[in-house]
Design a protein that fits this description.
Length: 300
């Protein structure tokens, strides 16, 4: 691995997601800071066409960051958090998926089921867990069901007796297969100190290594019924808690089932890609600065 920039060192663990890079998948990620998006972009840039053919679900606050305009053009979905907006946002998400996911030839969709950063949601999540006799989590929070359920209902191909709805045993090659996998991604930062976008852009922190662990589940193993899906999601984040507890104690993720030793993979990073991303960050930052200055002078 090469020390290309402050946080360009990434080590991957667990299942190899390259094996499913040409299939449709939903990616569930724990959320600690704004830099999680950058970390995932870096991880996935060497996974074939995944980055070009993926859709992101992000908090609406990201709309006002450096890459907000790019994400809007790209067709990503910005979701407003909070009980007052929840039902309306889920309706808008369904409409967005139906309008853009297939028409733009998307294959992967990435979301953060916790619904916010760990430091902001941990206390509320722990209080909810205590009230409902659920596990006490320190490194992640309990996930929310809404967006995941909408995605699965909208993008998983309907099944009848193990074959696609409609009764045709033969599927035309041009017909989308629907989501085939759920990829459970767990991001870990040394000492539990996440990286934000400002650090990525300005590089004012010492070089560090970011670790990402993957588990791949066939979509047929994911329950569709809301209560069962909720329990399945809870179990994924309980496992994330165990993974991160082990990582913070040992500096490595535990081995997969059937392995005696955990195996990590060094990433292949493109210098051209890194330079392009950093340049875009600086240019977009300068653009926002000029816009704010313009409005400031107009007002005052």
């Amino acid at each position: 691995m090469r020390k290309v920039s402050v946080d360009s060192l990434v080590v991957e663990w667990g299942d190899d997601v390259k094996a499913v890079s040409e299939d449709e998948a939903v990616v569930l990620v724990n959320h600690q800071a704004t830099g999680d998006v950058c970390t995932l972009m870096m991880c996935l840039q060497d996974k074939g066409t995944v980055v070009r053919q993926m859709m992101w679900l992000m908090d609406h606050i990201f709309k006002y960051t450096n890459f907000g305009i790019v994400s809007l053009i790209h067709g990503d979905f910005f979701i407003r958090q909070g009980k007052a907006h929840r039902d309306q946002q889920l309706v808008l998400l369904k409409e967005h998926l139906e309008k853009y996911y297939r028409s733009r030839n998307r294959k992967w969709i990435v979301l953060f089921p916790e619904g916010g950063f760990l430091r902001k949601r941990r206390e509320t999540s722990q209080a909810f867990a205590k009230k409902n006799n659920l596990p006490f989590l320190q490194h992640v929070t309990l996930p929310r069901l809404g967006a995941t359920q909408v995605i699965l209902k909208t993008l998983v191909a309907p099944q009848e007796n193990g074959t696609p709805a409609g009764g045709d045993a033969v599927i035309k090659e041009s017909k989308p297969k629907g989501l085939q996998w759920v990829i459970d991604a767990t991001i870990a930062y040394p000492k539990g100190e996440p990286i934000d976008i400002q650090t990525w852009i300005l590089g004012y922190r010492q070089p560090t290594v970011t670790h990402v662990h993957y588990r791949i589940f066939p979509i047929k193993d994911v329950p569709a019924e809301p209560e069962a899906l909720s329990q399945w999601l809870y179990q994924r984040f309980i496992e994330k808690e165990d993974l991160l507890t082990h990582f913070y104690k040992t500096g490595a993720f535990p081995p997969l089932q059937g392995q005696t030793k955990a195996v990590s993979r060094e990433m292949t990073l493109s210098n051209l890609w890194l330079v392009g991303i950093q340049s875009l960050a600086f240019l977009s930052g300068g653009m926002w600065y000029c816009i704010l200055q313009y409005f400031y002078h107009c007002l005052f």
